[in-house]
Amino acid sequence: MALTAAYNLLNESIIHFRDRPVGTVAARDRSPAAVNYEECFVRDFVPSALVFLMDGEAEIVRNFLDAVRELRKQQKVMAGHQRAAGLMPASFKVTSEDGKERLTADFGEMAIGRVAPVDSAMWWMFILRAYARITGDDELAKGSEFQECIKQILELYLKESFETAPTMLVPDGAFMIDRRMGVYGHPLEIQALMFCTLMIAQELLLPTSGTQDLLAMVAKRLQSLRSYVRIYYWLDRDRLNEIHRYKSEEFGFDIENILNVYPESIPEFIDGWLDEGSGYLAGNLGPGRVDFRYFSLGNLLAILFGLATDDQARNIMHLYESRWDELVGEMPVKICFPAVTGQGWQLMTGSDPKNVAWSYHNGGNWPTLLWPFVAAALRTCRHDQARKALILAESRIYDDSWPEYYDGKKGSLIGRRANFQQTWTATAYIIAKHLLEEPSKCAKFKKMMFEWE
Ligand code: GLC
Fold it and tell me: What distance in Å separates the CA atoms of residue 147 and residue 142, rounded to the nearest whole number?
């Protein structure tokens, strides 16, 4: 019953443009928390696209890819500043002018957080590759307009800025967490997506005289990014011991504590939190800074894309096992742990009431994270965890009308300002269900996700 209801929600969420399906709205709630939930968000469309592709309905995905590529041209000059053509919109909607339908894009200038959606173009690349893998239609990506688009994305994302590491430097809230949350700098989720984008570029960008230099940069960056994240983001008992005894204020090249992290910055929660066999990738790294918070999407994507080593992937899933109550609780999966509270919340979020402790982006539980969780559990042979998470979600999300997020330390309360009928809550459930119960659809998913050339 829940599966049928999830499909009904997905089908009703489809947006048509000039009679062709082109995307899905973020939520079908009659009184959404914000008006733009009636738009198609690029990141929210990812699980929709995966469902459509598993079901052999590729047309809507193709239309979406084409539409978003075209929408890049709508960028407005903001405060006299013209942004690069590689930036893709956060969301878009269908408007009507003189009886003629138009697509209108938002590059973050209208959304509440007013942030640049750095993840959009990277998710677009991900969907493009998934589409090509499943349909066997290589021609779309090979077309001149798509090739130009991939080039422009890479030119923007590989552009030299002020980084001192191979990781990508971004402003606060540039991804799923799209409000101020102290996630500026080098957040893990962006590094995982960047890694995936570079791998896809190697597959989809055709080698020509015009792309030679770019492809060389891609290959180099891919290697350096992978080693850097695997070494410096990794936290387990041994690593914590090292940081705990770090010397600081070291000058020169041959030093251990390259970011000059003061051991005094290790937060209290981590004392005794990691058992033997558990580990994870830190949320963020920068000068004098390790963000020790656990961010689930970044860690799960690192497992799915092979950015984490096999051992690291196993240890991350072991952490879920040993800290199940805190990281999953009553609704899979918590977006980050722990929440920032009190003065920390005031300073980090600018006293954002939607992001109070254990709510929304600040330690809320998001059922849309069910799909990467189940996929990561399968990749690491943890069927038990995948099944347990699905059963937990299944016991509530349909009865609760597909909420966007849950609140509380264990995620037991429906989010205070959560929408109902949230599309990516339903699509994440459909994916998880197929992965565990439909072998032929699971095989298609694996082809899109785990098989690289
Ligand atoms: C919120 C979420 C964002 C999502 C959007 C639409 O802004 O933070 O990740 O894309 O809602 O669901």
Answer: 6
